[in-house]
User: What shape does this take?
Amino acid sequence: MDSYLLQYNPSRPSPTSKDRLFTTEIRFDRPVIGIIAQKDLLTEHDPQLAHPDADFVGLVNRGLYKNDQVTLSSDRRTIHVNI
Assistant: This one.
C-alpha cells in the first residue's frame, strides 16, 4: 500500500490570505481506498502511514476545517480539494 500526505502551507500570511481559495486536483494511477482528514486520525495513523523520518510533533494546523471540501471522483482516482 502507498500513502500520500497532502500539505498546504502558504509561504506568508497576508491581510487578504483568509479570503483566498486554494483549489487543486490530484490524480492517482489506481483507486483511492481512503482519505484521512481529521487531525486526531492523522496523528493516530502516523506510526503506520507516515514516513519514518517525518516529525509532526507540535503542528497545530493539521486536518481539514469547517468549510474545507475534499471530493473523490466516481472512479476513485481523482481528489478535488477546495480550502
Summary: The chain has one helix and three strands. The mean pLDDT is 85.
